[in-house]
Design a protein that fits this description.
It is built from 15 helices and seven strands. The protein is α+β, with helices and mostly antiparallel strands.
């Protein structure tokens, strides 16, 4: 394809979904979604209460949702607990899934959803709202689902499992192209929303494809890694992980520089995000002291409520005090206006 043909193809695929949701009406469609959950006789009152615990999810996002399709799913949704992972061809580290063909949430982890960690239940609940889910870009979809459930149901813990790295990559993408195209991708399943924005920065279509492919390869390697496998197989997966991480990081740094006009290493927020990714470390300095980040309260990107409550990245950090020969723990808030750090913070 020529560049013009690529843009035409992308715009046409986006228009189909935009037209479908353009006539959504907040009051009418909000009621449709809530009634669908309330009238579902196949889920328990406990599950229903969890799903309806933040109506703002629908208030804020009704104009992104294919109401007819998703409300029908919610009306007929089933939830069951069993350990039949073989039927669904998933690994032992998978705790739950949403099976779109069956329109069913399956809990493999516990005997009852009441004892399933609620962030896992809400993660699968969020999957129901993605109109389509494809294998290509699946890692992005999983990470988006995790962040969305965390922001809209934030009284529950954020899962720190296999999506942790990819959640950071998604947050970096939010800093590059904004949250809106990522949110549209989440609800529609159309990855062209992301392509369209990245192509504005660099019209290399293949580079975007390789970025997403590397993200998918990394997640697959993480999910397939098993402590009991042979050393040879472990080495192969480690090589895939290392190569994928390096490629992802290089591409995100490339797009960030184009979008912001300065390097990732000069940005306190992005440097902190990359510090979470295995095998990477960017020194971050405060008051001329290098700090080691060990915990975060993430800034919000998608939920209006969460963004209002968490407009900045908060770091719980430790640093070494040479005068007292001790570790000092502190909390540091990185406001957007203070995020650019001294250039000595990278090498």
């Amino acid at each position: 394809y020529s560049t013009n043909n690529i843009y035409i193809k992308i715009d046409n695929s986006i228009e189909d979904y935009e037209e479908k949701v353009s006539l959504n009406n907040l009051d009418k469609d909000l009621e449709t979604m809530i009634v669908a959950i309330k009238q579902n006789k196949k889920i328990t009152d406990f599950e229903r209460d969890v799903f309806l615990s933040n109506i703002n999810f629908y208030i804020e996002n009704i104009n992104y949702i294919d109401v007819n399709e998703i409300s029908n799913r919610l009306k007929k949704l089933e939830i069951e607990s069993n350990n039949n992972r073989k039927k669904y061809n998933v690994n032992n580290n998978v705790l739950a899934i949403y099976s779109k063909p069956e329109n069913k949430i399956v809990n493999f982890h516990t005997d009852d959803t009441k004892t399933l960690p609620k962030d896992i239940l809400t993660h699968e609940f969020m999957h129901i709202h993605s109109s389509k889910i494809y294998k290509f870009g699946l890692s992005l979809m999983e990470a988006l689902t995790e962040i969305m459930q965390h922001e809209y149901f934030y009284k529950y813990d954020e899962t720190t499992g296999p999506y942790k790295e990819h959640c950071m990559y998604v947050r970096v993408l939010c800093e590059i192209i904004g949250a809106e195209p990522l949110k549209k991708f989440f609800f529609s399943g159309n990855i062209n929303y992301i392509y369209k924005e990245l192509l504005k920065l660099d019209n290399d279509y293949d580079r975007i494809t390789n970025l997403i492919d590397n993200m998918d390869s990394l997640l697959a390697a993480i999910n397939n890694y098993d402590i009991d496998m042979t050393n040879d197989k472990k080495d192969i997966l480690r090589q895939v992980m290392d190569s994928s991480r390096e490629n992802i990081e290089n591409d995100l740094k490339h797009y960030f520089k184009l979008a912001r006009g300065y390097n990732v290493e000069d940005d306190k927020v992005i440097s902190t995000y990359f510090n979470v990714v295995a095998d990477n470390y960017y020194p971050v300095y405060y008051n001329d002291e290098e700090i080691y980040t060990y915990d975060f309260i993430y800034k919000g990107y998608f939920s209006e409520q969460y963004i209002k409550a968490n407009p900045s990245l908060i770091l719980h950090v430790s640093s070494y005090n040479y005068e007292t020969d001790s570790i000092v723990n502190d909390s540091i808030t990185i406001k957007d206006e203070d995020r650019i750090q001294n250039s000595k913070a990278y090498h």
